[in-house]
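# nightly structure sweep
# worker-07 picked up a monomer target from the shared queue
# config: single-sequence mode, recycle default, output format = structure tokens
# input follows
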Amino acid sequence: MEILRRPLANIILMRYYKNARKNGYKTGESVFGGAYFISRACLMALSEEGLLPQNKFVSLNLGEDHIFSLLTKSVGYTLESLSFDKGPMGCDWNGLPAHPAQLIQDDRKVIHSTRYWKNLNENTIRTYFKIKRNQIK
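# output follows
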């Protein structure tokens, strides 16, 4: 049982989990760790709560995106997506959300993961974006 292996970190995390649930957090809800923004106000709230830095969570078997999402909700802030419609993010968990040309056309500013898109591999995708960046200069 995970709580027995890391009791202090899990007990502390449970406190924030309960606060997050009161603020509408759904278990497992998180931002995408490949790229995300945190407002200054949220960072200040996390700091005032004593959560930055929070070295006690290092031992947990959770990614920083999951921990930050839970803590963000625990201090009363929301999680939103900037990847849909014509937002600035072109992000997906495992590969691109659209063809590289479409991401450029949609004026996406933050793009992740470049691992693949359909039959395009990472090297091809990175080369494509490098050529586009050089055309801007």
